[in-house]
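Can anyone check this?
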Amino acid sequence: MCPMKAFTLNGSCTCPLKMRHFQLNLLLICVATTTAILVVPWKVKCPLQCVCQIRPWYTPRSVYREAATVDCNDLFISTVPERLPEGTQILLLQSNNIVKVEQSELDYLKNLTELDLSQNSFSDIWDFGLKNMPHLLSLHLEENQLAELPDNSFSSLANLQELYLNHNQIRRISPQAFLGLGNLLRLHLNSNFLRTIDSRWFQVLPSLEILMIGGNKVDVILDMNFRALSNLRSLVLAGMNLREISDYALVGLKNLESLSFYDNNLISVPKRALQQVPGLKFLDLNKNPLQRIKQSDFTNMLHLKELGLNNMEELVSIDKFALINLPELTKLDVTNNPKLSYIHPSAFHHLPQMETLMLNNNALSALHKQTLESLPSLQEISIHSNPLHCDCVIRWVNSTENHIRFIEPQSTLCAEPPDLKRKHIRDVPFREMTDRCLPLISDKSFPSHLDVVDGEDISLHCRALAEPEPEIYWVTPSGLKLLPFSEDGKYKVDSEGTMEIHKVTIQEAGLYTCMAQNLIGADTRSISLIVNSSFPFSKDMLELIIEEVQTYNILVSWKPHLNTISSNLTWSSFNPSLDLTNVARIPIGTHMYNITRLHHDTEYWACLHIAFANLQTKVACVNARTKEAQYQYLESRQGALMILFLCILVLSISLIGNYGFSSFKFQSRSQGICMPWKTASSSVHVVYPTFIKQWDQGRKGERLLAMEVQATSLDS
């Protein structure tokens, strides 16, 4: 067995080994003794049914001790057993029916250091006779029925270092309830009925290092709530229904290392509040309804080592430059987010120590190569259990330069395209693929409908990955096209593709369509916005209007209709020899189309087909004849000058052809001799093709598109 001096503060064994050939055996013995429970009988007169032993014990400062312990747990007793051994250091009375403790029942236990009265039936703090206990360090009162903590509730316990009051029914704590607990290190107030947090509670707790106050229905953390806790190292604010953290709520926590906001109602990262905690190392934001991790949400947190963003039901995207300058971050956990479909290629900037990236169990179709390149120290990554689209965006997984270890590679499978479904991603022949691919908008992050009430501010998110990077825009139910950075008072679209509608009304109800397009193609997704259970449909007649008819093109337009899903335009000729029907898919938000490459002096029939969100369709048709081909003359001054110049050119060539160049001489200045120009008889045939006038929106005049001059030599 390892001697007492061989144990460190956390209980690990450091047995000195002097003989090399005994080193392995002694090491095994050392490990075995530290994992065993060091319990020996305590030979005293023990109360009936209780157990008296010498057990290992760690002080609140994690110092190992062996303590005389009386264990009377789970005996269903209603009073403290009589005649406890006077040398008792730890008294365990958990899970009984005790409702009151008289001072005389415990005041003779002068060496008592830990008292566990949890899971009993105490309802009043004055039911504890806890005076004259100078050595008491730990007091467990959790899972009782305490409802209030008045002033001076624990003033006689000056050396107390741990106080557990969690899982009671505490509704009110007086400002001076903890007066006298200047040495308290750990305070558990979690899972009570508190509605507010009073900063005055903590002004008498200068030594506090760990505070657990989660599980209370507190909506807001106010400014300076924890200012007095300059030595606090760990703060747990989990499960509190927190909707907001004020910018200065965490002021004063200069030594805080661990912070948990687990299971709250935060809709945005409290980034300004986090900037007040310069030494933060571990941050837990799991299980909050955040929709986006926005630009600069985590910035200049110089000592942050681990960040958790898991189990967020509404998280859709991690935007560009969301994490910036986190020089000590080594692990990022972003898992089990069912709508997370997009991580911007430049989401991470200056994360030089990032080693582990956990992205499993999300809705990611791909992870861009640029994301990996921004993490120079990355050693392992987990992207399994995602609907991975095995196309050009994720080609990096089979790169010879890629030395990153995949966690659970057997579960890292392709979901699309169909011919690669269920195929291991490392077995996909990405080198045979093109380096360009279509945009893909994830259907998991894009609901088919959204029910809201008027007056709400709503955000609709649209993201897509592709090569080349796609452009994203929105189309409203009325056909209004909204590009990124556009804003008109009611609608706003940001650079990432999120459309915001400010204080929605019933007039904004309808079908909204997002389009992501690049040079390869496009992808669209639509969402039905229902306001106050209302969703309008257009009752107007569909009419196709001829705006302009020319020799080789016809311009048509139509009035935008509400909640259009798709539009197609077809046209064909009445001429049997040209019996070919053409079809054009009209992009959402387009209400005019120029039909080109037509034949002159030909009758055409055009039809517009529109499908609506209520599964109805409308068709409107129109016919027109293109103009007959003929020479057209420019009316502008530039056109007249051009014709004059051509006439002079033709006349000059004719004169040269008739009279030759014999009268013209060219003298070389370098040689000083005359060189006659050789004469030749020639003729010029000038051809003027038909001037083609194409439709130019907003311009009524015609413009010359082509002119050809052809010269033909003739024998003399």
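Reply from J.R.: I decoded it. The mean pLDDT is 83.
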